[in-house]
Specification:
mainly beta; seven-stranded mixed beta sheet
């Protein structure tokens, strides 16, 4: 059973920083990409940032220059460093992984979500 476990959300004032972590565990053969999505109340879930196995990254325009995604392949862990946070960044942040479990085909997995709240 593959699991994604997130940590690092919380409450921060505007202009502050937070770092999210997400670790993939279980019987994993390979990980194609890991990333973060977010969903604010009344909005659709949107991509925040994603990183592939070879280190290629892409970001939502709204977070470019403020957020940085990084990955530790040895630990199957992805990080999201969020700086210069503003109230519009308030949302539930979900970790996502596109990976191949042992003996199975490529699948999409989601974490349980972690709340990020930015106060003005």
């Amino acid at each position: 059973q593959v699991q994604l476990v997130e940590s690092g959300g919380g409450l921060v004032q505007a202009g502050g920083s937070l770092r999210l972590s997400c670790a993939a565990s279980g019987r994993i053969f390979s990980i194609n990409s890991m990333g973060w999505y977010r969903q604010a109340p009344g909005n659709q879930r949107e991509l925040v940032a994603r990183i592939t196995s070879n280190g290629s990254t892409n970001y939502a325009d709204s977070v470019k220059g403020r957020f940085t995604i990084a990955r530790d392949n040895a630990k199957n862990t992805v990080y999201l460093q969020m700086n210069s946070l503003n109230p519009e960044d308030t949302a539930v942040y979900y970790c996502h992984a596109l990976l191949t479990p042992l003996g199975l085909v490529l699948r999409s997995y989601w974490g349980q979500g972690t709340q990020v709240t930015v106060s003005s």
